[in-house]
Amino acid sequence: MRTVYILGIETSCDETSAAVVKNGDTVCSNVISSQVDIHTRYGGVVPEVASRKHVEGVTYIVEQALKKARISLEELSAIAVTYGPGLVGSLLIGVAAAKALSFAKGIPLIQVHHIAGHIYANQLVSPLKFPLLALVVSGGHTELVYMEDDGKFQILGQTRDDAVGEAYDKVARAIKLPYPGGPHIDRLAQEGEPSLALPRAWLEPDSYDFSFSGLKSAVINTLHNANQRGEDVPREVMAASFQQAVVEVLVEKTARAVRQYQVKQVVLAGGVAANKGLRQALTDRMKKEKVEFLVPPLSLCTDNAAMIAAAAFTKYKKGKFASLDLNARPVISLEEESV
Ligand code: KG4
Ligand code: ZN
């Protein structure tokens, strides 16, 4: 096969990103424009504002990605775009931009599921080996995914309430840290002792599902009770205790799935994969389980278009292209993405 260059476009939340990836595993460019400073003022992503910022930026970001990769539109093999899940107004901007370029230049279009993108970010680090297990932890998702082969997704378990990143952001808000709170809690957790007793939701013994809302409520209750007694809970102690409770459940369930499914590799994916505590705990545990563990560098853990172009390569090889009536899908299961 000749060299395949895929342009990826990602606008599912509050990052406008475009990237060029060669043969599904080599990043030629990965341009990301984050709106986080704008949304921080409101304590979370404001969908209307996010869409408007994507409209303003997407054309320029795509131009920059092509320029940095020193490639012209005509040389592209395909254009890949995140079509869901995410904020519908945000997704629509990326989908419209990708369709317009595809139509104008006659370049094949590929639709990519956002979470498939997060998983395939690992392919930019090292070749994926199947069967593999992916632990997906982001602001909107917490899923343990079994991949028997390239492009095949089976969800073993998922959160029944809050996503991990969501729990991080809510706890951060409770201890008065700015949005997004995940990185702040992670930093503080390195400085404190995990001395507070917080609950772990193991659920049924054979379940791979997760639940984080009880833990979040326990944090809020602990703070409230201390406040009523006129006591102060040091933020780093709360951060460390919360992080330990989250990490313990994620690591235990992943290790159990490794044994049950006899996988060749475990990959970590999603924005919370940037978490130092989680990365370290999984690295140590997977070594004990004698299974290869991959985790993307920080820049490829949070939303970016290189991961979208990497995931699109599998569809490209299988000739799975989208038509020009492609629409944004704010809610869509990962299993539907299997090819
Ligand atoms: O994957 P992502 O960029 O967006 C979604 O698709 O959701 O993930 C964003 C989430 C936010 O909730 C943020 O607080 C969390 O990832 N996050 C972290 C860390 N860095 C980002 N959570 C814990 N520790 C971190 N170091
Ligand atoms: Zn994401």
Name the features.
single chain, 339 residues, alpha/beta, Nucleotidyltransferase, domain 5, 2 domains, 10 strands
What does this structure look like?
- The protein has 339 residues and is an alpha/beta fold.
- The protein contains 11 helices and 10 strands.
- The chain has helices spanning 36-40, 47-69, 88-105, 114-120, 164-174, 182-189, 213-228, 235-261, 276-288, 298-301, 306-317, and strands at residues 5-10, 15-22, 26-34, 78-84, 109-113, 132-137, 142-147, 154-158, 265-269, 292-294.
- 49% of the residues are buried.
- Zinc ion (ZN) is lined by residues 114, 118, 138, 270-271, 303.
Small ligands present: 5'-O-[(R)-(carboxyoxy)(hydroxy)phosphoryl]adenosine, zinc ion
Mean pLDDT: 95
Number of helices: 11
CATH secondary-structure class of the largest domain: Alpha Beta
Total strands: the figure is: 10
Largest β-sheet summary:
5 strands, mixed
Principal-axis shape: globular
Structural class by sheet pairing and helices: alpha/beta
CATH fold-level topology of the largest domain: Nucleotidyltransferase, domain 5
β-sheet strand percentage: 15-25%
Q: Radius of gyration in whole Å, from Cα?
A: 20 Å
Tally of domains: 2
* SSE succession: EEEHHEHEHEEEHHHHEHEHH
Order of adjacent strands in the largest pleated sheet: 3-2-1-4-5
Instruction: Give the name of the CATH superfamily of the largest domain.
Output: ATPase, nucleotide binding domain
> Low-confidence stretches at least 5 residues in length (pLDDT < 50)?
none
What is the correct CATH architecture of the largest domain? 2-Layer Sandwich
Proportion of residues in helical segments: 40-55%
Q: How widely separated are the two ends?
A: 20 Å
